[in-house]
Amino acid sequence: MKRLNIALSLTLLLAAAAPALAAKDKDKDESVVLPDVEMIDIPTAGILDYYGFQVKTRFYSGGGVLGALNFGVLERLNLGAAMTVDKLIGSDSEIKMRRPEIQVKFRFYDGGYYIPAAAVGYDSQGYYYDSTAKKYQEKGKGLYLAGSKEIGVPGLVAHGGFNVPDFDNNYLFGFLGLNYTLEDKVAFMVEYDSLFHNDDPSRLNVGTRIYVTPYFQLDLAVRELGRNEKFANGLPRKAERIVQMRYTTSF
User: Is-contact 164 145, C-beta < 8 A?
Assistant: First the structure.
């Protein structure tokens, strides 16, 4: 109960801060949301500006919480770290803190009329950690190449890329995503992740991103839509509801 109260307090604190953040954004005369650096699970070609700073909190199944920090250390380079804490929310006493994972992204091309913007990166943060095998059942992206481009109508952006999550077998995976932003207030997202290999099944994720302010985002999403099976270690693998909050600012 104490852990639940702490989590709820943090959520309420962020909600209470939203009006102040909106006022701050208004003072800056900012009316357009910042580029998305990621969707639900897949990366985009978007990056934080130089001196940019982003905090992300993600609440996932089983009372787990993922926290991440990312920094715009150079004009085109972002560095960050993420860490999960399993069973933080709820009555289970076996809280498990997992090792921090690194995140790096370099945007090497800003895009043109026909060619999408492109970035290369590395992200070792996975999901569903197996304490016995000491690895994630759903691996992080590992080394990846991501591209993003607005298509068709304003606000409709396609994302896609390739990744190698595990250098032991060097399997090449793929990912695709699409998001539509409506009047810089809300975005609708769909992504198809972990393509090409049946031994690590693909994932269909859908969600909504609410831009409380241009700097504060709230995501409501469902991962692994339609799944109802088991991982290799026998644990259940099924649809998962998640909530994410992001706040982006600068030094």
Answer: no
Q: Is 226 left (phi over 0), alpha (psi -120 to 50) or beta?
A: left
Residue with tokens 């109260």: 5
Identify which of 83, 78, 200, 68 has the alpha carbon closest to the alpha carbon of residue 146.
78
- Give the architecture-level CATH label for domain 2-250: Beta Barrel (2.40)
Dig out the tokens for 142 from the structure.
């590992």
CB distance 102 to 71 below 8 Å: no
Domain boundaries, the chain: 2-250
At residue 2, φ and ψ (nearest 5 deg) are -60, -40
In this predicted structure, what is the pLDDT of residue 32?
62
The β-bridge partners of 186 are 182, 210
| Contact yes or no for 89/7 (Cβ under 8 A) | yes
Residue 239 DSSP class: E
The pair of three-digit structure tokens given for residue 63, joined into one six-digit string:
């009372």
Q: pLDDT, tens digit, for every residue of 184-210?
A: 999 999 999 999 987 788 999 999 999
User: How many Cα neighbours within 13 Å face the side chain of 29?
Assistant: 0
Name the residue type at position 199.
D
User: pLDDT digits over 92-104, tens only?
Assistant: 778 889 999 999 9
Residue 33 structure tokens? 């949301």
Q: Is the pLDDT reported for residue 83 higher than 90?
A: yes
Measured CA to CA in angstroms, residue 108 lies from 137, 147, 188, 220 at distances of 31, 11, 27, 31
Cα 116 vs. chain centroid, distance in angstroms? 20
Residue with tokens 């005369």: 29
Using DSSP's 3-state secondary structure scheme, residue 231 falls into coil
